[in-house]
């Protein structure tokens, strides 16, 4: 599955910037809510949406599982490494903050969340789509309760926000294709013809229901 994800996101690198509008909005909101400072790990950095919104005094460092996404990130930012969020190659408390936007739902949260907390000194900020997103397509997003139960009392705040995908018809199909997000992890395949027809014919506005979460490091 990880190899498939890496391949899909690598293929999408040239089109991601234009089409990933919900992800961009989420990154902006995540940074505003968490107010990071110091050395910041951009976990699942993609092309660098989170790092772009950081205050100028921050020192960003990117991690991604896709080589081509990381290569695009490094054209703009000085530091990054190809790595798996479930096995981060850093010592404990290596970063002041860890921020992850629209990436941890692709991982085993029982592994990636503890890793994010392990390498952070001050806090972890997370934005990820949860159940209720893309309602008719059957994507297996985790529930907010599942995520909050994993962090327990360390959560300093959380909120849910609906972020609309601003495309219809074929542009909606292109959004899933050009952002690398057309994989349904439960079936390990791309959208079917029936699902594509549903996207084309639907009058529904598709949205991501995004959980924004700030976690204290104890």
Automatic annotation (TrEMBL):
Protein name (Swiss-Prot/TrEMBL): Methyltransferase domain-containing protein
Example GO BP: methylation
Keywords associated with the record: Methyltransferase, Transferase
Gene Ontology MF terms in the entry: S-adenosylmethionine-dependent methyltransferase activity
CDD domains, A to Z: AdoMet_MTases
InterPro entries according to UniProt: Methyltransf_11 (IPR013216), SAM-dependent_MTases_sf (IPR029063)
Methyltransferase type domain residues: 41-123
Record's keyword annotation contains Methyltransferase: yes
Source species of the chain: Aquifex aeolicus
Pfam families: Methyltransf_11
């Amino acid at each position: 599955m990880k190899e498939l994800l890496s391949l899909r996101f690598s293929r999408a690198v040239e089109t991601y910037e234009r089409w990933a509008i919900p992800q961009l909005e989420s990154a902006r909101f995540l940074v505003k809510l968490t107010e990071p400072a110091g050395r910041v790990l951009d976990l699942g950095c993609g092309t660098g949406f989170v790092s772009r919104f950081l205050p100028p005094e921050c020192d960003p460092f990117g991690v991604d599982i896709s080589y081509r996404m990381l290569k695009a990130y490094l054209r703009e930012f000085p530091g990054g490494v190809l790595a798996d969020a479930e096995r981060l190659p850093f010592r404990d408390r290596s970063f002041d903050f860890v921020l992850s936007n629209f990436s941890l739902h692709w991982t085993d949260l029982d592994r990636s969340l503890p890793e994010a907390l392990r390498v952070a000194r001050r806090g972890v900020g997370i934005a990820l789509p949860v159940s209720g997103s893309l309602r008719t397509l059957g994507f297996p997003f985790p529930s907010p309760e599942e995520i909050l139960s994993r962090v327990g009392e360390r959560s300093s705040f959380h909120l849910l926000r609906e972020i609309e995908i601003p495309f219809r018809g074929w542009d909606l199909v292109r959004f899933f294709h050009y952002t690398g997000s057309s994989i349904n992890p439960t079936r390990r395949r791309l959208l079917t013809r029936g699902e594509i027809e549903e996207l084309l014919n639907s009058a529904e506005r598709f949205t991501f229901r995004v959980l924004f979460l700030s976690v204290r490091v104890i």
